[in-house]
Amino acid sequence: METATTPNRLSRNLIVLVTFGVLIFVAGAMLPAAFFTWLWDRMNVFATVFLGIFVEAVPYLILGTLASGLVEVFLDRDQMSKWVLGRPAAAAVSGAFMGMIFPVCECGVVPLTRRLFHKGLPLSAGISFLLAAPVLNPIVVFSTAAAFGWGEMLAWRFGLSFFIAVVTGLIFSVEKEAVNVLRPALSLHDHEHTHADVNDSFLEKIRKALMITVDEFFEMGRYLILGTVLAASLQTFIPQSALLAVGSGPILSVLIMLGLAVLLSICSTVDSFIALGFVGTFSFGSILSFLVFGPMVDIKSVMMYLQVFKRRSVFYIIAIPFMLSLLSGLLFNYLSP
User: Fold this and answer.
1) Rounded distance, CA 108 to CA 269, Å?
2) Are 334 and 250 in contact (CB under 8 A)?
3) Centroid of chain to Cα 246
4) CB count in 10 Å sphere of residue 167
5) Alpha-carbon distance 267 to 273, whole Å?
6) What's the Rg (C-alpha) of the chain?
7) Is 67 helix (H, G, I), strand (E, B) or coil?
8) pTM of the full structure
9) Which ranges in the chain belong to alpha helices (H)?
């Protein structure tokens, strides 16, 4: 039966492909040459934006997955319990302060947080760390200071990011069962060859950590690529001038900058220099909201959040920082002299 139906199936597929090709050819022949010139220019812009975002993010994804592998091999649950206090408020604050230790941006922090959850990190601490680390780490602190100086923009960015991360972590602490927040841990690469043994030599532990790094890099990397494609597509086909033209008001300016933070998907290590270009055009509150919200939520990070958390949890991880960043920007716009 299979031998009889296979040629028919191949014939139908061939007919569909030929028909599709003819339709594309006819449609192309009917379109003006200017359209193809425009499309070629857009594709060049797309390729440039895509490579810019991807090349910028990959080193930090590698750093995050490497940290994940080292955590899996060298850190046990007893050590983790010494790092993070048991009470929800203390755990959330501890998780946010952990962001100062790991120099990872929003790409690298996701696989590292997932591994820390696997090692027994409380939900409140993990959520706080996930949101705080992309801003509170030393690289971003110094890049922000280089762009805006050691002044109020740096202080407010640091303080608000810490506050929002802790508040979000506290909200998640009401959920006592991690299984209701996290996706099933089937994708954690706990194969037999990656398990660390107390009798393993240091070099053997390093080898296993690197194997985990490679596994997680390719797993999370595909979602980084998908998120980068979406971000590059939006930047290519939605003119930023249209967004900036309606962003002059105290409310719209904050909303536009929050939208740009998601749309641009810029790595937190360099977003300060992008934000610096908006000074003089946008208000202090709107630029601050851009610098606070962008490292917590953008297109590529959301794609990776969906591989760690259930969809409802991802909604809250996005919505809570969005509302707090929006409120902060509005308060600065209306109350600042």
Assistant:
1) 12
2) yes
3) 27
4) 18
5) 11
6) 23
7) helix
8) 0.76
9) 2-30, 33-74, 77-83, 88-98, 109-118, 123-136, 138-148, 152-172, 202-237, 240-245, 252-264, 271-276, 284-293, 299-305, 311-335
Which tokens is 233 given? 């597509």
d(CA 156, CA 246): 26
Tokens of 306: 């969906």
CA distances from 119 to 81, 107, 278, 312, 320 (A): 9, 20, 42, 23, 26
Q: Is 100 helix (H, G, I), strand (E, B) or coil?
A: coil
Helix (H, G, I), strand (E, B) or coil at 282: strand
Residue corresponding to tokens 């949101």: 131
Cα separations (Å) of 61 from 40, 71, 110, 153, 221? Answer: 31, 15, 9, 27, 8
Residues 6 or more apart in contact with residue 330 via CB below 8 angstroms? 250, 251, 254, 285
User: Cα–Cα distance between 83 and 146 in angstroms, integer?
Assistant: 31
Q: Where do we find the tokens 């998780």?
A: 95
Q: Taking the chain (337 residues) in consecutive chunks of 10 residues, what is each chunk's mean pLDDT?
A: 54 72 67 74 86 79 79 69 69 88 79 84 91 88 87 95 96 87 62 53 85 82 79 75 69 91 83 81 90 93 91 96 96 86
User: Sign (positive/negative) of CA torsion 310, 311, 313, 318?
Assistant: positive
Which pLDDT score, from 0 to 100, does residue 186 have? 40
Cα separations (Å) of 182 from 98, 189, 310?
20, 16, 6
What does residue 282 show for φ and ψ, rounded to 5 degrees? -115, 160
Residues 6+ apart with CB under 8 A from 131: 96, 161, 164, 165, 168, 169, 296, 317, 321
